[in-house]
Design goal:
about 450 residues, alpha/beta, eight-stranded mixed barrel, five-stranded mixed sheet, 16 helices, about 45% helix, about 20% strand
Length: about 450
Amino acid sequence: MRTAALDIERPEEASDVGLTDMLTGLGNTRRFLAKIRRLIADRASDPAPFVVGIVDLDGFKPVNDLFGMASGDEILRQAAMRLRAALDSRCTIVRLGADEFGFLLPLTFSEAAAGEQARILIEVLSAPYDLGERSARLSASIGCALYFTAAEGAEDLIRKAETALYDAKRAGRGKVVVYSQEIEEKARRVTLIEQALRRAVAAGEVEPWFQPIVSLSTRRVLGCEALARWTDRDLGVVSPGEFIPIAEERGIIGQLSQVLLRKAARAAVDWPVEVYLSFNLSPSQLVDQNTSEQVLSILKETGLPPNRLQIEITESGMMCEPASAEKIVEDLRAAGIHIALDDFGTGQSSLGRLRQLHFDTIKIDQSFVAAMLTDQPTQHIVRAILAMCDGLEKDVVAEGIECEEQAARLAFFGCQKGQGYFFGRPMRAEATAAHVHGYAASARTAQA
């Protein structure tokens, strides 16, 4: 079996300006393609496997925006040096553009070995970056593809590595994915969903369903949370757990959210005046400074008073770009809209943000509620959250309540509100209207 010894791209070796990245001194995409093609040609008679990989620096853009372009360039230079040092002289490392690097491992023959080498690169890239008087930390995601047959070209291998990288980034930061047929099928379904979702959003085919939020002491319906539901004519029912992340990744979430809020607000206008609408904003919407204006415009259009709307945001959403998120939250609160911090306890924000951002409501994540009856430490955490919120004079909603025992225990601990299948599954707008009006009529009869 013949193998090709490929040298790491050093500035003095990559003398052709057309093949060199001027910032890092590494080779560029053209050189990467040339190296892969040469290795394929060398192994034409004996197609032994080798690995093509793509590295993407997670969180580079926010760091670049925060510290400035000069610091961003310094991070890229340091990342290039680390990748050079981590790979031996038979490997190739290039910069593909922005915060992406490519690598070629000619003597790595298996998926397991590719994954192991990629995890080493992630570890190397995750160490702090020295920026003079300050430092920054990043993680990295990597997608890899193995060459097996002479029928595959350089572009095919890069495309497969990109597909694997996309899957790695969907799985979270610091992940490695090696291309497989299953990955390809997942990517194809994502594309199908994206195209169908764009059509559905444009046609207004995505619908809000509503789940009641109740008083744990009286069991009266206080509000309803809008939840996205979508049935496509070709794909059938698509889970929000599948299409919402795709909407986020492909830049559709803003238009989708506006369609849903408009429909939800129109439905809520006809509910009893004491019943509020709760609506989720995505992390990307907390970066867009047009979000506040869009929300207020929809309220004006539909006639729903701002004080009957509660906007839910997550801790992780607040942490994407805190300054932008804080501005949007304050603009919405100034208009009379209530703000809830969703999934509390599962994100990254500090407790200080509860004071700084003036949330009206804290929603305890369902994972705590699910474990509360059987796990003593979790019960202590729930009680601590409730005591803290009581001291801060904030409402609390416990999510994911599925039985009477959970509801009773939470009420005993001082939790005011609850939500979950025990009180009602998500319903269409018509069923929700009947449900909330029925509760309101029962309450009036009881008072009489």
